[in-house]
Design a protein that fits this description.
With 69 residues, the protein is mostly helical. It contains 2 helices and no strands.
């Protein structure tokens, strides 16, 4: 559940960056800082998704590695 929520909330700032680029306001200082803030927010949320997936795959592989010994 948290994984899907982080993924959804990570995509929304990227849509905001696309909207800023489509309006042409990315060339202003306000648009530049808005894009940087939205990109940072998206990167943090995608990092959370990456760490959650890595944790799930490590849990899934751990019992299999112990059985092979």
């Amino acid at each position: 559940m948290m994984l899907m929520l982080s993924l959804l909330l990570g995509i929304i700032p990227l849509l905001g960056i696309g909207w800023t680029v489509m309006n042409g306001t990315v060339t202003t200082v306000d648009g530049l800082f808005l894009s940087l803030i939205l990109f940072s927010l998206s990167a943090i949320l995608f990092l959370n998704v990456f760490l959650e997936l890595r944790k799930k795959f490590k849990k899934g592989l751990a019992p299999a590695a112990q059985k092979s010994r």
